Amino acid sequence: MNEALKEARKAAKKNEVPIGAVIVYNDKIIARAHNLRVQKEETTAHAEILAITKANKYLKSWRLEDCDIYVTLEPCAMCAGAIMQARMRAIYFAASDVKQGALGGNFNLYQERFNHTIMINRGILKEEAEELLQDFFKTLRGN
Question: Per the residue annotation, which of 3, 16, 42, 48 is the catalytic one?
């Protein structure tokens, strides 16, 4: 999760919402990314989506079955869906998102019946991730 937080800090320096993600395969980080929606002017340029794309290229496969993803904020519905479609083994996230979180913060997409199950782990380095997000939005609002 520390590596995902490093990615989130990179996003903040670019005036992007500070969310970072890393994907691990065989105990090795194979992909890392941070939010780039503003810079790329792309709706889908979330940290998770960008990391998944990099992992797909690294493994030369759309399936990421033996991979785990670490994210600093609970994924939204789009990202939770992409993680499910990639058939990842597990997701680890730091802070919950009560507004848009799709893994229990606002609703739980994975409660629906799918042909794949993903292990969910919450709250890892939660305080650090929350502080980073809070500081970013305070600065953004000029507080």
Answer: 48
* Residues composing the chain: 143
Q: Is the separation of the CB atoms in 4 and 22 below 8 Å?
A: yes
93 strand-pairing partners: 71, 122
CA 42 to each of CA 81, 91, 102, 126: distance values in angstroms, whole numbers, following the listed order: 18, 24, 20, 27
CA torsion angle for 127, 128, 133, 136 (degrees, to 10)?
130
CA angle 86, 117, 95 (to 5 degrees): 80
pLDDT of res. 140: 83
129: its two tokens: 């991730």
Q: What is the DSSP string of 61-75?
A: SS--TTEEEEEEE--
- The whole-model pTM stands at 0.95
User: Per residue in 30-59, pLDDT tens?
Assistant: 999 999 999 999 999 999 999 999 999 999
Q: How far apart are CA 103 and CA 36, in angstroms?
A: 22
52, exposed or middle or buried, with CB in 10 Å at 0-12, 13-18, 19+?
buried
Active site residue 48: yes
